[in-house]
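subagent[fold] <- orchestrator: predict structure for attached chain, return tokens only, no commentary.
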Amino acid sequence: MKNLILKGSLVLTFLVMMSFTGIDSTVSEKIFIGTWEYEAPDAPYEYQEGEIVFAKKEGK
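subagent[fold] -> orchestrator:
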């Protein structure tokens, strides 16, 4: 009986985890596309602040 409950719990956990991976990837990509400013005070002087640009190239 305990074995059946354990297996059922594992299957349910697996299904819930799989539902989160099914999120539309284009939506998650759009979140990061753009120009981002960053600050890293502990980095060497020339790398302490700047901008990072994330863009989507055609086909990639």
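orchestrator: received. Logging for downstream: The longest strand covers residues 34-39. The two ends are 50 Å apart (CA to CA).
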